Amino acid sequence: MSVGTLMDWRTGLDAGDLSAEFLAMEALDRMDQREGDLNAILFRDRELTLDAARKADRRLRAGERTPMLGIPVVLKDNLHWKGAPLSNGSRIMQGYTAPYNATVVNRLLEAGAVPMGKANMDEFAMGSSGEYSAFGPTRNPWDLSRVAGGSSSGSIVSVAAGYAPFALGTDTGGSVRLPGSFCNITALRPTYGALSRYGVSAMASSLDQVGPVAASARDLALGLSVLTGRDPLDSTSLDLPGTKGLADLRPATLRGLRIGLPREYFGEGIEPGVRGVLEAAFQRLAAEGAELVPVSLPHTRYAIDTYYLIVTSEVSSNLSRYDGVRFGLRREAGELQEMISGTRDAGLGAEVKRRILLGAFCLSKGYYDAFYLKALKARTLITRDFVEAFKQVDILATPVSPGTAFPLGANLADPMAMYLADVFTVTMPLAALPVVAAPAGFSEGLPVGLQFVGPSLSDVKLLEITEAWQGISDFHRKRS
Amino acid sequence: MKPGFEAVIGLEVHVQLLTRSKMFCACRNEYGGKPNSHTCPVCLALPGALPVMNGEAVRMAIAFGLAVHGEIREASPFYRKQYFYPDLPKGYQITQGPVAIVEEGWLEISGKKVRIERAHLEEDSGKSSHELSETSSHVDLNRAGVPLLEIVGGPDLRSPQEAYDYLKTMHHLVTYLGICDGNMEEGSLRCDANVSVRREGESAFGTRVEVKNLNSFRNVKLALEYEIERQIELVERGEAFGQETRGWDADKGETRSQRSKEAAMDYRYFPEPDLPTLRVTPEEIEAVRASMLELPEARRARFIETFGLTDYEAGMLLQSRAFADYFEALAQASGSGKQACNWMLGELSRTLNGRNIGIEALGLHPEALGELIRLVEARTINLNTAKESVFPALLAGEGSAAQIVEAKGLAQVSDLGAIQALVEGVLAAHPEQLAQLKGGNVKLRGFLVGQIMKQGKGKVNPQLVNEVLDASLAHG
User: What is the DSSP letter of A200?
Assistant: First the structure.
């Protein structure tokens, strides 16, 4: 059974060779076969899915030809899909059914996409491996003994395993790019604000973005075309320019493209195999006429500290609403504070608690200036580094991760090691910049990704560049 | 207050803004309703819900700022104030931080300027009820997210009476501006006080105590009187006391400690990442200024100037915007500001007080009352007839003033010939009194006028009666 790309399926559906119902049933079959190994899906409902597929078929038969009509999609389980349970990868949501649609989910459903299910994730999107899900880790389809990467583990693996050619994850500090890199998937972290956060359970509000994932830049562009546009329900959302051509993405011209290689991203600590793959990729780009320019982002060394100070502070605040009062799990108790702390103790996992504690500490009287305020200042400096770099180059290219997918359990005992897995992915969110992570090759049989980083609002341009890259490479076509 | 001591008081007033929808969502901003019926994912704080600023609330805050001569800050970010309580569904309140939308204003109370340090926008919490059941508490989130303007007054008040006057003036201003309904029973306007005492002549402040739960004008005065006396006693006894928050128990008439400064909460304030910094442009400020009605102070001056009223009268007319608006319409319709004012403060106020309603509920159009005043001015009827006979009928909806006068035959006799006949008849019937009057007993003039009016059944024009009587006496 072959797994097509979104583009293939689009062509088949539009030509009438395929039906949405057939595609959905095929995908459901694949889930049945592989879920025992992969654990990428937390909720699915055959009837809900087939019902949506049949509706899409009616629209197709009526002559509608739109980018996502009839295309199976998977949604990360922190996105509200009305009527479906939502877990955030956490036990604390027990019994909660989404009473409304997230804006991005609404847009997909209205575009006729067929929802296949809700994807596994690190609890509240906190994690880099997928192992912090309360419902067990998602496994890497390239090697079941390894992590898929997180936190959007299930969304990425759903595309890799052919459950859907398009999925939505979220990316706060690398949560679609890291698993994308570990599983050979193309992932976009948009400019902050380009996709609405309404209906997306918040982890760190100033960094969270919905991240679409697919097998190629072209597939991503098709999906993205129905998702963009300012949302009045999200005060931080904005209009992304240049989205008109998304459904018919053209490759950018590589000749003369100035690609900056920030030296801070190529230092010690990168696995030799990964370094080799990246060097080969850059040479291939240079052979097409791209100009490789060494640049520097000097404040990169503060990135992890800055990122985790801001993330934990915002987490400590955003997760206060999970108190057992209005929804989800509740531990009954005689006293109010006992009920709240009992509920949170029982419902939240260790990593979530760790971040809440760190964040509450950072924001406390007497520490705010030393931690949170200082982190905001560092954030400004990190942002300025990028602004300076983009005066010299068009885009930046970097690794996604120093290594390939690590074995399950390898970093679980050491939270700091887990945080360091994010070292190449956290700076761009701090600067609110768009990034594409795309397959760059393989090291010892495991996928290696690279990142293209662009200036603010250059999302479409980055997809065009990625499309050009995928025109001269075929790593993204390889399936597990 | 005990001689030799001085109180230093500053009030914090929370004003619920009269917007149509809540501060950060489209839910109705309305008091009461079935518990939790005016709620949505945003004000229920469901995961994923995001706040969106209510522009109407911003415009109301600007209007308030302009009315208190304040600075409207170009950029005032929102912050999160964090604590766990079931009626605070997000676990934090969205409020403003170090910079408020309005700063450095003042309010005048009986010739004294009281500083308004800041007024900032924030959201109200829901309501917890602990009385509905023995074993559980209930939460109603209809109020959660209702827009509030918190107005922080400077430590400029020196007595409970001044605090009372300040709150009255504030209440008047916000209701006059139409940004709050002023209903203190429903909590639309709430007040906390910071109070300390010191010996007269001292410049340093004493230890400050915050008194909460002052939900009526009367309670503000009573609580402050109690608290000031309590603090003076402590100072006199030489007993040190710390900063604390005390609650006013209106039933017992005392303040009671709620928490000390040491136990003060750490609210872990930080900038709200879900909302951009609130920015106000000079154009937006000008648009609010242009749309604003004349402010009470300016209107009062105009009333005095244009209608020749006293300061007291003008102040009474400005008791509410509706009352002042009615007055202006009545002055216009009647052609006499002075008479309109007399009616407003006389018959109309009596009627409103008697029925315990506001002018807007009276159901009497100013044009209709204006017509009545014109009839008096034209001497078609006299003032007594107008007040005692026509006005009640007007209120009862028995027709226009002219129709009532006609139907009841109340028009004054102004026919000179008829009055002359009446006067002569009465004089002829009372020769003895006439002779005594002529002999110098001037008191008898009043008796004769009375007789003439009686004969004329109260409908003769008293001025004409006097003129005719004078002429007769002079001739005869």
Answer: B
pLDDT (average), residues A306-321? 97
Residue B51 has φ and ψ, to the nearest 5°, of -80, 145
- Residue B436 and residue B322 in one domain: no
The residue out of B255, B285, B315 marking a domain boundary is B285
Tokens 């970093």: give the residue.
A411
In this structure, the answer to whether residues B229 and B336 fall within a common structural domain is: no
Active site residue A152: no
Q: Are residues B304 and B427 in the same domain?
A: no
Residues B123 and B164 in one domain: yes
Same domain? For B201 and B266 the reply is yes
Residues whose CB falls within 8 Å of the CB of residue B369, separated by 6 or more in sequence, listed in order = B330, B333, B334, B343, B348, B391, B394, B401
**Considering only CB atoms, which chain B residues are within 8 Å of A372?**
270
pLDDT in tens, A69-102: 999 999 999 999 999 999 999 999 999 999 999 9
- CATH code linked to domain A6-254: 3.90.1300.10
Per DSSP, the three-state class of B214 is strand
Q: Report whether A208 contacts A202 (CB < 8 A).
A: yes
Residues B301, B362: one domain? yes
The number of folded domains in chain B is 3
Name, in order, each residue with C-beta under 8 angstroms of A301's C-beta and a sequence gap of 6 or more.
A264
Please indicate if any CB of chain B lies within 8 Å of the CB of A321: yes
A188-A30-A185 Cα angle (round to 5): 20
Q: Is B283 on the interface with A (CB under 8 A)?
A: no
Tens of pLDDT along A104-144?
A: 999 999 999 999 999 999 999 999 999 999 999 999 999 99
CB contact under 8 A, B52 and A317: no
Whole-structure pTM value: 0.87
Of residues A19, A76, A458, A461, which has the active-site annotation?
Answer: A76
User: A-chain residues within 8 Å CB-CB of B137?
Assistant: 336
Residue A25 has pLDDT above 60, yes or no: yes
Q: What is the CATH number of the domain that holds B425?
A: 1.10.10.410
- Nearest chain A residue to B80 by CA distance is A317
Distance from CA of B160 to the nearest CA of A (A): 34
| Catalytic residue flag (residue A296) | no
Give A3's pLDDT tier (boundaries 50, 70, 90): low
- Report CB contact under 8 Å: B276, A232: no
* Minimal Cβ distance to B91: which of A79, A206, A321: A321
B105 touches chain A (CB under 8 A): no
B96 and B18 in a common domain: yes
In chain B, residues with a C-beta closer than 8 Å to the C-beta of A352 are none
Domain coverage including residue B371: 294-408
Structural domain ending residue among the three candidates B358, B389, B408: B408
**Ranges in chain B, pLDDT < 50:** none
Quote the tokens at residue A421. Answer: 């897995």
- Locate the domains of chain A by residue range: 6-254
User: In whole numbers, what is the pLDDT of chain A averaged over residues?
Assistant: 96
Q: pLDDT tens, A139-194?
A: 999 999 999 999 999 999 999 999 999 999 999 999 999 999 999 999 999 999 99
Q: Are B366 and B326 in contact (CB under 8 A)?
A: yes
Contact yes or no for B369/B336 (Cβ under 8 A): no
A333 touching B (Cβ < 8 Å) = no
Instruction: Answer yes or no: A175 catalytic.
Output: yes
* pLDDT tens readout for residues B95-134: 999 999 999 999 999 889 999 999 999 999 999 998 888 8
B118 touches chain A (CB under 8 A): no
pLDDT at A1: 36
Which string of DSSP letters, residue by residue, matches A212-260?
EEESSHHHHHHHHTTT-S--TT-TT--PPTTGGGGGG--PPP-TT-EEE
Residues B182/B189, Cβ–Cβ less than 8 Å: yes
Place of tokens 């575009």: A111
Choose from A77, A235, A341, A364 for mutation: most chain B CBs within 10 A.
A235
- Co-location of B44 and B144 in the same domain: yes
Calculate how close chain B gets to A260, using CA atoms only, in Å.
31
Which of residues 188 through 227 in chain B touch A, CB cutoff 8 A?
A: none
